[in-house]
Amino acid sequence: MAPLLEVRNLKTQFKSKDGVVKAVDDVSFYIDKGETLGVVGESGSGKSVTAMSILRLVQAPGKVVDGQILFEGRDLLKLDDKDMRKVRGKEIAMIFQDPMTSLNPVLTVGRQLSEPLITHLGLTKTQALKESVDLLKMVGIPNAAERVHSFPHHFSGGMRQRVMIAMALACRPKLIIADEPTTALDVTIQAQILELLEKLQAETGTAVMLITHALGVVAGMADRINVMYAGHIVETATSDELFDNPRHPYTMGLLKSIPRLDESRRGRLQPIKGSPPDLLDLPKGCPFVSRCEYALPQAEIILPQLRQVPSVTDGGRSEHWIACHSEVKMGDPPVHPAQEVA
């Protein structure tokens, strides 16, 4: 069965007076129908630019310079603007990380929820308003018939994000891209929003691309996880496989830096040493080489490509790919001691 979305060799760049920023560099992945794909990485890794590229929302000086974005077999990069507008909101919807800046402050939430219903589904204003009330009820907003006439500033942060989820679900899209949907929320509300997304996905059957900088957010929700670093996918595996058998040094570093309840309180967290590379001046070889405790000599000069490695979960049947020259595994002693890493 063909995937719902397939991204092939995507390259998105930003031109500046100092040079060209390779924000997304030769990225390929897929999402199946009804699947949840987690995309994890620190700031500047290319997660959000990948999402914006899929919806063709990258603004100048940014530009998709190469690749294919196949949605149900159609290359979105070849659609004209009119056809692309029919895709946005109806077939692929997006939940942004800050609902306060994503919602129009001078329009009621009912008006904003009604817009895609009128535009894509051809509902009348009365029908759209009624459907908007039902959408607010679906995402757990109390007194929906009254709150539909409220403005965004009348809602708390968590409730505004529920409105954004309702808007994304309005036209029953086949894919929802959730870009850091819980970043601006406190921990309790984060959990509520993630539970809501998971519940609604189960009810509607939509696929979800969940973008986050925190592995913990995708741990219990994603079917598969892509780990991004400096514009590249450096590891991809099923969720269970990634947590049980991380194989890329960057992924292992992320996991080592997470507090664990099952370890001694006296244990020290292990941050990843150094800083991400300048995207204007990427190294010739592996972009993680200057921070890597396991770097081999060839990593300095040869960019590693994704290659399949043996998996340990699901009887070894699950796929696991890494972009690394090393055969390192979690717990192996470092080749370069941490204090020597720049």
Structure description:
With 342 residues, this protein is α/β, with parallel strands linked by helices. The protein has two domains: 222 residues, Rossmann fold (3-Layer(aba) Sandwich); 87 residues, no CATH class. Helices cover 29% and strands 22% of the residues. The chain has an eight-stranded mixed sheet with strand order 6-7-8-3-9-10-12-11, with helices on both faces. It has a four-stranded antiparallel sheet with strand order 2-1-4-5. A hairpin with a 2-residue loop joins strand 4 and strand 5. It is globular. 42% of the residues are buried. The C terminus is likely disordered.
CATH-level-2 architecture of the largest domain: 3-Layer(aba) Sandwich
Domain module count: 2
Mean of residue pLDDT values: 92
Give the termini separation: 46 Å
User: What is the ordering of alpha helices and beta strands?
Assistant: EEEHEEHEHHHHHEHEHEEHHEE
Tell me the layout of helices and strands.
Blueprint: E1 5-16, E2 19-31, E3 36-40, H1 47-54, E4 62-71, E5 74-75, H2 81-87, E6 92-95, H3 99-102, H4 109-121, H5 125-138, H6 144-147, H7 157-169, E7 175-179, H8 187-204, E8 207-212, H9 215-219, E9 224-229, E10 232-238, H10 239-244, H11 249-256, E11 307-308, E12 320-322
Parallel strand pairs: 3-8, 3-9, 6-7, 7-8
Antiparallel strand pairs: 1-2, 1-4, 4-5, 9-10, 10-12, 11-12
Helix pairs in contact: 4-5, 5-7, 7-8
